[in-house]
Specification:
The chain contains two helices and ten strands; from the N terminus they run ββαββββββββα. It is mainly beta.
Length: about 150
């Protein structure tokens, strides 16, 4: 399915739809995401609750199947300063598939901006639920931890 606009929101059914919405958001933000990764738990699940604190630069995903919490990207470096809050969809669901994207500094592989896009497993809404400036070093290493 391609992205579909309903009212103020975008809807899609695939991780490609979520990535497309993330890219569109990032272009409008001025720091285009060029590298992406989908979250997957060690248990194999791809659905999570998401908490974040954009001021501190922290995101935590909690697996909807096994309950394992995982600090995303470089969040472990900033968790002591954070007050993460949960995210909910407009349909009030709190379980999502997550796609992370990063913008990098021109001519490098170093992360400049971090985006977390969510795909609601109930109503198919897609959108960027969190983003922040991020000086995290190598993009591949950073995205390996989302």
């Amino acid at each position: 399915m391609a992205l579909t606009k309903k009212g103020d929101f975008m809807y899609g059914t695939t991780s490609g739809d979520t990535q497309a919405e993330l890219r569109s958001y990032s272009v409008a933000n001025g720091y285009e995401a060029t590298r992406f990764a989908s979250s997957k738990c060690d248990c194999g699940s791809r659905t999570f609750a998401l908490q974040s604190d954009e001021e501190a630069g922290v995101a935590i995903r909690t697996c909807s199947d096994c309950g394992q919490e995982h600090l995303m990207g470089d969040s472990a470096d900033y968790i002591e300063e954070a007050t993460p809050e949960g995210h909910a969809c407009v349909c009030e669901n709190e379980v999502f598939e997550l796609v992370s994207g990063v913008s990098v500094y021109q001519g490098t592989h170093d992360v400049r901006w971090y985006y977390i896009a969510c795909h609601c497993v109930e109503c198919n809404l897609v959108g960027v639920f969190a983003d922040w400036k991020c000086e995290a070093g190598d993009a591949a290493a950073f995205l390996a931890k989302v």
